[in-house]
Amino acid sequence: MANAPLVVGTGPRKVLALHGWFGSATGWGPFADLIDEERYSVLFLDYRGYGARRAEDGEHTLAEISADALAAVDAQGWSSFAVLGHSMGGSAMQRVLVDAGGRVTGLIGVSPVPSTGVPFDEQAEQLFRGAAGDRGNRYAILDLTTGGRLSRTWLDRMVQFSFDQSDPAAFGAYLDAWAGTDFSAEVQGDPVPVRVVVGEHDPALSAAVMEQTFLQQYPNASLEVLTNAGHYAMFETPVALLTTVERFLDDL
Questions:
Q1: Taken in order 112, 175, 83, 99, is the CA torsion positive or negative?
Q2: Which of 14, 23, 116, 158 gets the most CB atoms within 10 Å of its CB?
Q3: Burial class (CB in 10 A: 0-12, 13-18, 19+), 86
Q4: Structure pTM?
């Protein structure tokens, strides 16, 4: 790959971190600063068209994210690893699980997109389709998925970050990858330990959605709801998120 991924820590517990649609390898907020670097090694990947790889061409598919992720962990010499995925990264982490051939020790999804994709009504379709080039659409999506309760200053900064960190064409193309791809038959019944974490103020990827998807598909899946969080727990409640992630990893 053209750019080396960001690795935080040198600890024995290996974790691959896959970002969301509005994120990047550096888009994990205060959560990333709290990682215990002696206990964990966390590889934060940029997808093609994002972050350090913003100018890199690609097909912008889940299969491509997975192939790049496996190349990155191979370059680190990791034989096995857990995968942490936020939002779109929650879909990608399941693609990695399927493609990695038993190397994944556990999945931690933070407001994760299910392997079924996300069905949109006409209004939502227009909102999300228009987000590639429109600041107002991105702001509205951020506001909606965090419960319409957060600071305009923070929302504006998140919008700017997403524009700075992603190529608009790639951003638009990834919508089909996470919303329009259904590979649920490939993960059904997989025994890997799974923890899904959602915010109580996220109306889109809620506890009910997790119960209908992840908890039906993975026999060893469990659900945690974070109070005072919406879709972006790594910013809204970073210490609470860190605590549940650490507990899950340490139990593997």
A1: positive
A2: 23
A3: buried
A4: 0.98
